[in-house]
UniProtKB/TrEMBL annotation:
Gene3D superfamilies the record matches: Vaccinia Virus protein VP39
Keywords on record: Methyltransferase, S-adenosyl-L-methionine, Transferase
Family matches, as InterPro entries: Cation-dep_OMT (IPR050362), SAM-dependent_MTases_sf (IPR029063), SAM_O-MeTrfase (IPR002935)
GO biological process terms, semicolon-separated: methylation
Family matches, as PANTHER family: CAFFEOYL-COA O-METHYLTRANSFERASE 3-RELATED, O-METHYLTRANSFERASE-RELATED
One Gene Ontology MF term: O-methyltransferase activity
Name assigned to this protein: SAM-dependent methyltransferase
Domain of life: Bacteria
Record-linked Pfam families: Methyltransf_3
Origin species: Candidatus Methylumidiphilus alinenensis
Length: 225
């Protein structure tokens, strides 16, 4: 028994995936191709992708927001879990990385579910809000992009989520650097600041889970908005 979350060494993580992970072949292929890229560490873990897909089904999500696509593992995991009418609005700055994503979306037959916007995500989110018909309409949002803008993404995603919408924020443990007082680069400082802000934010109910590199779940409280 343990009164705190257990740490996972390679052997235990291997066991975890062996008895839990049901990764579709298309996702395994995408993960293998991404592993050869210089920025492969930006991809989410397969068990996290499966967890996100389960959350989509649990809350009955049909309209999803994604900030940060990379090669598309998270968006593909979510798209495969969405109902037939489900849609993802996704933002990324890289034509090169998202070209890989588009190829796999097409192969998996979910490309028509994903509306990809290339450019600065802050600008794209502001454009969505300016439309006046998207605020308070998204079921789920996932943030996994440049860390210095996390607070900006958080505030905009909260506005776009419907009451009781679910916000997921990746990398909130940042490889343990958030707990290392000797580390104070801009990315780490931004994550620390957002973690503290969310902890005290009455607009959301929260849980920070030690999934992969740390995943915060923030449920938008309807009574506060």
């Amino acid at each position: 028994m343990s009164n705190k979350s257990i740490g996972l060494d390679d052997r235990l993580y291997e066991y975890l995936t062996s008895v839990s992970l049901r990764e579709p072949e298309i996702l395994a292929q995408l993960r293998e191709e991404t592993a050869a890229l210089p920025n492969a560490g930006m991809q989410i873990a397969p068990d996290q992708g499966q967890f996100m897909a389960l959350l989509v089904k649990l809350i009955g999500a049909a309209k999803v927001l994604e900030v940060g696509v990379f090669t598309g593992y998270s968006s593909l995991s979510v798209a495969l879990a969405l109902p037939g009418q489900g849609r993802i609005t996704a933002f990324d700055i890289s034509p090169e990385w998202t070209a890989v994503a588009r190829r796999y979306w097409e192969e998996a037959g979910v490309a028509d579910k994903i509306d990809l916007h290339l450019g600065e995500a802050i600008d794209g989110l502001d454009a969505l809000l300016a439309e006046g018909q998207t605020e308070g309409t998204y079921d789920l949002a996932f943030i996994d992009a440049d860390k210095v803008n996390y607070d900006g993404y958080y505030e905009r995603a909260l506005r776009l989520l419907k009451p009781c919408g679910l916000l997921l924020i990746d990398n909130v443990l940042w490889g343990g650097r958030v707990a290392d007082k000797s580390v104070d680069d801009s990315d780490t400082a931004a994550i620390r600041a957002l973690n503290l802000k969310i902890h005290a934010d009455p607009r959301v109910d929260i849980s920070l889970l030690p999934v992969a590199d740390g995943l915060t779940l923030a449920l938008k409280c309807p009574a506060v908005f």
